[in-house]
Each structure stands twice: as structure tokens, then as C-alpha cells.
């Protein structure tokens, strides 16, 4: 019975292949799609009742499709959002989001320990870390997906800038990817 309850609490979320998205870029047989989740229907599909945007966090779905004959190392991937004004915003690790206080939240101290809020941070929900991009390697002809999180609102004209993808066998760094977040 516990397994069924977990299945109901954690709805399945399966993004399609990178080639299905308009906001994608292909370089040397590697396709990366990047989709900011700003519409309510998108957010509900991935996060249920939780809306990270209301907490000041923009989730961006990233799907990497490796159509090369090489395994790609993703353990040193760096992801930034570059605004139309050329401001660079680093992604925030999913594990750190549970420690952020959301915007405009009053400090409520119901704990006997000073400085500890009795209110649970909505960003501590399992969906945040459970849906985060976690792949460290990507085998030939495989794909991986997950969310990167940015402590900034979405701004039209922004791009997602990815670096640090490497050929696993040689360690050779691959091209950077600069993907427009709207088309």
C-alpha cells in the first residue's frame, strides 16, 4: 500500500526528445533543448501544486541528446542564463534551494530556537531535487533531462549558456551551447 501512495504523490513527468522542442541547438550531433517553465500548465505538469516561480526561482528544463559515437561526460557542466542585457545568472544547485527564503515572506518564529522559522520552505519539496538534472555521463545514442534552477524571473530574449561537456574517453571539451529560451 505504501508503494501506491508514493506513486500517487509523485506524478510521472517525462519530457519528450530534445528534437521535439523549438528552443534547441545541435552542434556536432549533440542536441540540447532548453525550456523555461513559466506557464502554469507546464509548472503543474512537472511540479504539481508547487510553483517555483512564486518563490523567486525559474526552473529551466534541459534535455541533452547524444547522437555521437562517444560517451559524453557531464560532471563538469556549467549552466548560466544570460539576459538580454548580458547579465549572467548562475544556476543554483537544487539541494541549496530548500535553504532559500521565498520573496515577501514574513519571518514567523514559532520555534523555541531563535532564528528558526516554523514554516516549511515550499522549495524543500521532493520535486525540486527529484526533477533536477543529475546525469554525470551520457552514453552514445542516449539522452538525459532535468531542471536547472535560477534565482531570477524569466526575461524575454534570454539564452541558456552551457559549457563543460567533454568526451569521456579523451577529456576533450566540446563546444559551448548558447540556446535561445524563446523563439
Descriptive keywords:
4 helices, Immunoglobulin-like, four-stranded antiparallel β-sheet, disordered N terminus, 183 residues, alpha+beta
Gist of the model:
By secondary structure, the protein is an alpha+beta fold. Helices cover 14% and strands 28% of the residues. It has one domain (17-180): Sandwich (Immunoglobulin-like), CATH 2.60.40.1230.
What do these coordinates show?
A hairpin with a 5-residue loop joins β5 and β6 (88-90). The strands form 3 sheets. A 4-stranded antiparallel β-sheet has the order 1-2-3-8, with no helix packed on it. Strands 6-5-9-11 form a 4-stranded antiparallel β-sheet, with no helix packed on it. It has a 3-stranded antiparallel β-sheet with strand order 7-4-10, with no helix packed on it. It has one domain (17-180): Immunoglobulin-like (Sandwich), CATH 2.60.40.1230. The chain is α+β, with helices and mostly antiparallel strands. It is 14% helix and 28% strand.
Amino acid at each position: 500500500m505504501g508503494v501506491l501512495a508514493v506513486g500517487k504523490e509523485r506524478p510521472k513527468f517525462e519530457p519528450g526528445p530534445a528534437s521535439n522542442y523549438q528552443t534547441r541547438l545541435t552542434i556536432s550531433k549533440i542536441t540540447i533543448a532548453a525550456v523555461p517553465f513559466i506557464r502554469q500548465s507546464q509548472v503543474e505538469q512537472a511540479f504539481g501544486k508547487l510553483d517555483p516561480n512564486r518563490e523567486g526561482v525559474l526552473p529551466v528544463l534541459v534535455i541533452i541528446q547524444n547522437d555521437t559515437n562517444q560517451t559524453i561526460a557531464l560532471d563538469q557542466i556549467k549552466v548560466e542564463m544570460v539576459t538580454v542585457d548580458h547579465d549572467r545568472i548562475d544556476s543554483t544547485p537544487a539541494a541549496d534551494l530548500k535553504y532559500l527564503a521565498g520573496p515577501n515572506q514574513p519571518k514567523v518564529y514559532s520555534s523555541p530556537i531563535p532564528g528558526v522559522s516554523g514554516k516549511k520552505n515550499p522549495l524543500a519539496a521532493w520535486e525540486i531535487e527529484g526533477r533536477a538534472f543529475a546525469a554525470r555521463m551520457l552514453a552514445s545514442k542516449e539522452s538525459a533531462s532535468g531542471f536547472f534552477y535560477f534565482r531570477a524571473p524569466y526575461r524575454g530574449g534570454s539564452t541558456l549558456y552551457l559549457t563543460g561537456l567533454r568526451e569521456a574517453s579523451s577529456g576533450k571539451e566540446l563546444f559551448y551551447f548558447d540556446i535561445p529560451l524563446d523563439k
